[in-house]
Amino acid sequence: MAHPTIHELFDLRGRIALITGGARNLGFDMATALAEAGADIALTSRDLKAAEESARTIAADTRQRVVGFACDVRYEEQVERMVDAVLAAFGQIDILVNNAGNVVSTPENKPIENRPLDEWDFTLDVNLKGTFLCAKHVVAKAMKQAQRGVIVNLSSVAGMVGKDHRVYHNTTMGGVTPDYAAAKGGVITLTRELACWLAQYNIRVNCISPGGFWRGHSETFTQQYSYLVPMGRMGQDGKEIKGAVVFLASEASSYITGINLPIDGGMTAW
């Protein structure tokens, strides 16, 4: 029996990938990577115009079919409508990347003793409940029936270890909040639970936990953050998350489920 080549293992042609929060930053990078590997793409944003503009950019660069959809993952009715719309457009969903996330943080409202409850609720709703809702409806409407699928959830090193808040000294940044850490930690545990339950349907579920990626940060913050990283720098947009998502979405990882993969330059290895 001939075994697949490494090129065949990473080949995503014929697959449909749904990426939430795919209009910018790491979500855009992951949508681009999956398209470069041959998948057609549905990407979402709360801003339909932003989703459509990013979809056009990726389609022009990769020659794949890419469509933008509006969705606020905090609301189940919006998630359900979005999944229905993606299925109407593409007919299937083979890969779900739960990337949508957000947090509001300032030096004044970050500490637990000052943290407003509405900010706690917002952060948990976007980062944790949104991940649950998207997985729920994609599994129910597409993957369970197909008896196959891949889910990649996005957590953070903030969900793995406590933050050294000294990295924010002499900056105007608020940084990691207790609700963000709790939500992202919950995503990792949810990943493991879903992996165990959904394995019976041949659905794999894994998690990626990025560290800090440089995005115009101040020199002070960049230096303080980089000091905490064995590799001595921040991550690079447009490059350093792409390989991980293609690996976890493809047959190259066909016997891997329930893992959390840090992309952090070794920060959590200290």
Fold and architecture overview:
- This protein has 270 residues and is of the alpha/beta class.
- The chain has one domain (6-269): Rossmann fold (3-Layer(aba) Sandwich).
- The protein is built from eight helices and nine strands.
- It has helices at residues 6-9, 25-36, 48-62, 76-90, 117-146, 178-198, 219-227, 242-249, and strands spanning 16-19, 40-45, 66-70, 95-98, 149-154, 203-210, 213-214, 235-236, 260-263.
- Strands 3-2-1-4-5-6-9 form a seven-stranded parallel β-sheet, with helices on both faces. A two-stranded parallel ribbon has the order 7-8.
Summarize the topology.
Layout: H1 6-9, E1 16-19, H2 25-36, E2 40-45, H3 48-62, E3 66-70, H4 76-90, E4 95-98, H5 117-146, E5 149-154, H6 178-198, E6 203-210, E7 213-214, H7 219-227, E8 235-236, H8 242-249, E9 260-263
Parallel strand pairs: 1-2, 1-4, 2-3, 4-5, 5-6, 6-9, 7-8
Helix pairs in contact: 2-3, 2-8, 4-5, 5-6
Q: Can you tell me the CATH topology?
A: Rossmann fold
Report strand %: 15-25%
- Individual helix count: 8
Going across the major beta sheet, what is the strand order? 3-2-1-4-5-6-9
CATH superfamily: NAD(P)-binding Rossmann-like Domain
Name its key features.
two-stranded parallel ribbon, Rossmann fold, 8 helices, 42% helix, 15% strand, alpha/beta, 270 residues, single chain, 7-stranded parallel beta sheet, globular
In brief:
42% of the residues lie in helices and 15% in strands. The protein is α/β, with parallel strands linked by helices and 270 residues long. It has a single domain (6-269), classed as NAD(P)-binding Rossmann-like Domain (Rossmann fold), CATH 3.40.50.720.
